[in-house]
Specification:
Structural class: alpha+beta
Radius of gyration: 16 Å
Number of helices: 7
Number of domains: 1
Largest sheet: 8 strands, mixed
Number of strands: 8
CATH superfamily: Gcn5-related N-acetyltransferase (GNAT)
Order of helices and strands: EEHHHHEEEHEHEEH
Distance between the termini: 23 Å
Strand content: 25-35%
Strand order of the largest sheet: 1-2-3-4-5-6-8-7
Length: 191
């Protein structure tokens, strides 16, 4: 446990979203989000789709993320649209390594909300949270080589390519996937 994390924010407000830590009872909305986007999430988020494959399992996932937050094992936020109050995405940090300190980035947004700058708003708020409150020195992301929207998003926020990892993931079809590693350091951001 990291004592400096006991008082961190659990809500990040942007112009168009409320990005907040999951709460008990959020599983049904999360399940609906996954089902609405299962076709586009099937490659990058296959494990998550399996882990939250029905409403009960989605609620269990939500509660596990809440538990992991309290234990400082991961920091996952749901993204809710200000206008409709509908859950439209997920964003957060996985696998923190407090010896560096660094963490991996994960995010996705509902297909109806892509290419509107909403995820850029959320990522900007999350990066500020990561560097200023979690006191991370490095934030990294691994994305499939052909996931150009994700690469554009993180590059827009200052991430740089660090390298390629071959045969790093396996699709549900059994096909192996190479991933690109991109990262951003506190020093590069000025936080």
């Amino acid at each position: 446990m990291q004592p400096h994390l006991f008082g961190i924010d659990t809500v990040l407000l942007t112009n168009r979203t409320v990005t907040r830590r999951f709460r008990e009872g959020d599983g049904a909305a999360f399940f609906d989000l996954l089902q609405d986007n299962s076709a586009v999430l099937s490659d990058e988020f296959a494990e998550l789709l399996e882990e939250a494959s029905d409403k009960e399992r989605a609620e269990a996932y939500v509660r596990r993320t809440l538990s992991d937050w309290l234990l400082h094992k991961q920091f996952i936020f749901g993204i809710w649209d200000n206008k409709s109050a509908r859950q439209i995405g997920l964003i957060g940090f996985l696998h923190p390594d407090w010896s560096v300190p660094k963490a991996g980035l994960t995010c996705f947004i509902h297909r109806d909300f892509t290419r509107k700058g909403i995820m850029t708003e959320c990522l900007t708020a999350l990066l500020r949270f990561g560097f200023q409150q979690l006191l991370l020195e490095k934030i990294y992301v691994q994305t499939a080589m052909d996931n150009y929207p994700a690469q554009r998003l993180v590059r827009k926020c200052g991430f740089r390519r660090e390298g390629d990892l071959r045969f790093e993931r396996k699709k549900p079809t059994g096909e192996y996937v190479d991933v690109m590693l991109l990262a951003l350091t506190r020093q590069e951001t000025g936080y």
